[in-house]
Amino acid sequence: MEIGSVRGVQASNMRWPVALTVLALSLTGCGSQTAATGEDDARSASPSGKSQSTPPPAQPVGNQGSQKPADAVKTFVTQVLQERYSQTCIASAPVLEVDQDPAAFCARQEVTRSLAVLRNAWAKPGVKLPPEGKVAVTGVVEEGDTVTVPDSAITLDGRTLRELELIGSSGDTGSFSLSLEVKKHENAWYVGSWDINI
């Protein structure tokens, strides 16, 4: 399953918030559990990677996906912010590549930790969270069966996720980005993974 991946991580003189540093360190290779240091245990490890030969799992009952990529992103981000991690993972099951039952996989502690790292990067003090704070997605163009949605196209309570992710950082942050990959499966859209570039 590819919960997330890291590309272009480089050492620099930047100071990153703990949540982002752990996010970059924890989104690593093929199905491994990589420990990272952080403020709490919920930020310490994350699964990622893809199974090479296993087909995507069957769609869980009641999971209908979204009509548009932007709606899939909105649902994903809202569920993460509401700490509904297992539900978030199960909602992505039709496009995840895992070698076990999606429900069992999504119940793993590593999945919860991975999604909690994202939540900690977005849920900053003073920002209204769902249901009070609204998640919006703009500028998404549907092309083919895979769409990449940058964090700058997603807003929470009127601020982009990129703005929230960079709170507490210093130095040159111009190369930083986080994006969600949205995939189409049987005419519905699901968030399948994310990429972070530092």
Please render the helix and strand layout as text.
Layout: E1 5-7, H1 18-26, H2 69-81, H3 85-91, H4 102-106, H5 109-122, E2 135-137, E3 146-150, E4 154-156, E5 159-160, H6 161-165, E6 177-185, E7 188-197
Parallel strand pairs: 1-7
Antiparallel strand pairs: 2-4, 3-6, 4-5, 6-7
Would you write up a description of this structure?
With 198 residues, this protein is of the alpha+beta class. The protein has one domain: Roll (Nuclear Transport Factor 2, Chain: A), CATH 3.10.450.50. It is built from six helices and seven strands. The strands form two sheets. The chain has a four-stranded mixed beta sheet. Helix 1 runs antiparallel to helix 5 and helix 2 runs antiparallel to helix 3. About 28% of the residues have low confidence.
